[in-house]
């Protein structure tokens, strides 16, 4: 087993994220219509600067776009909303914590979709605390 174990590739982690997304409740997924899920090894330098990250390992994921509460029917054509998952920081986090990789991917994905819904980090921490 240990001789064949390896970290998932970008494509494998993207497939995992889409599989996790498909398992979320249908009502939740319906609100995410048009949302694109992507995986990259690391955030871009521009994203790191914008988020004031100390290291390229600081961000596990990112929502880019216009959240649902800010959208209006009169909007001019805009870029699609994206959720980015960052493979290397997620793998680094996985190596340091006693959680399954699937659980971490699910948590990051739901967290970033929460931003799509217009929730702040504080909002989501409160929801998780109440649920936990």
Automatic annotation (TrEMBL):
<protein>
    <recommendedName>
        <fullName>Zn-dependent protease</fullName>
    </recommendedName>
</protein>
<dbReference type="InterPro" id="IPR038555">
    <property type="entry name" value="Zincin_1_sf"/>
</dbReference>
<dbReference type="InterPro" id="IPR010428">
    <property type="entry name" value="Zincin_1"/>
</dbReference>
<dbReference type="Pfam" id="PF06262">
    <property type="entry name" value="Zincin_1"/>
</dbReference>
């Amino acid at each position: 087993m240990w001789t064949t174990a390896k970290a998932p590739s970008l494509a494998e982690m993207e497939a995992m994220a889409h599989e996790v997304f498909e398992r979320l409740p249908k009502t939740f997924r319906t609100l995410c219509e048009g949302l694109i899920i992507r995986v990259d090894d690391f955030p871009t330098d521009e994203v790191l600067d914008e988020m004031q990250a100390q290291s390229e390992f600081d961000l596990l994921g990112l929502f880019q776009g216009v959240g649902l509460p800010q959208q209006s029917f009169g909007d001019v054509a805009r870029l699609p909303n994206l959720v980015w998952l960052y493979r290397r920081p997620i793998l680094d986090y996985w190596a340091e914590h006693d959680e399954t990789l699937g659980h971490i991917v699910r948590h990051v994905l739901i967290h970033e979709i929460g931003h799509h819904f217009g929730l702040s980090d504080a909002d989501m921490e409160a929801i998780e605390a109440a649920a936990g």
